[in-house]
Specification:
By secondary structure, the chain is an alpha/beta fold. 42% of the residues lie in helices and 24% in strands. The longest helix has 18 residues, at 188-205.
Length: 226
């Protein structure tokens, strides 16, 4: 799962990134509102952690413009101000939850888990299933019957995305954005390499599920009739 942190306090942003990545989240950081809005509009994030007091564009405006653009990514707003009026403003502009600084790390993590569960495709937080495959999110393990194989982080992220969308075609561009990030210089061949890794592991598992290539577009899962 990919989280965007929009926080102008560099040390706090770095601390949040370390905390989230330690708990299995892929995390990107922005330090001002305009960059945060630009990244959030890419629609590659599962949750946005958004500070209120930001340079160039405040958090209230960011979330308002995000919603006006039709983006429904869950937003957790952070602020050092505890006034009820500020919380009301944030929620009215489109935020999903409001957390006042300072906060406990476990409270932040609980909020992110709660927000991610609001997305239907993420309700099953422990495992995903498709055909004869099961993807265990806790151990990064792909299982087929009695056979299993451990996945690297990028292999896991790619397989998770494919299984969440199942037979829907995912473009190479979306795979690059979701897995490598908005500012990465990764290219199409990076996707092709990891698709190749996953295909080898599916063959090792003797799964009836295959990764189908849609020429010039992207990939999707399909169940073999064999």
């Amino acid at each position: 799962m990919r989280v965007l942190v929009v926080e102008d306090e560099v040390r706090l942003a770095s601390t949040l990134q370390d905390l989230l990545e330690l708990n299995g989240y892929t995390t990107d950081i922005c330090h001002d509102g305009e960059a945060g809005l630009d990244n959030a509009l890419s629609a590659i994030y599962d949750v946005v952690v958004l500070d209120v007091m930001l340079p160039r564009m405040d958090g209230f405006t960011v979330v308002q413009r995000l919603r006006a653009a039709g983006n429904s990514t869950p937003v957790l707003m952070l602020t050092a101000r505890s006034e009820v009026s500020d919380r009301v403003t944030g929620l009215d502009r489109g935020a999903d939850y409001y957390l006042t600084k300072p906060f406990e790390p476990r409270e932040l993590l609980a909020c992110i888990r709660a927000l991610s569960r609001r997305q239907p495709e993420l309700r099953n937080t422990d495992a995903l299933e498709y055909g004869d495959l099961k993807l265990d999110k806790n151990s990064f393990t792909l299982l087929c019957g009695e056979r299993s194989v451990r996945l690297s982080r990028k292999e896991f992220d790619m397989m998770e995305l494919l299984m969440l969308n199942q037979e829907i075609v995912i473009t190479k561009e979306n795979l690059l954005l979701k897995i490598w990030g908005y500012e990465s210089d990764a290219e199409d061949n990076n996707v092709e390499v990891y698709i190749s890794f996953l295909r080898r592991k599916l063959a090792h598992l003797r799964s009836t599920v295959k990764i189908k290539t849609i020429r010039m577009v992207g990939y999707c899962l399909e169940r073999s009739s064999d």
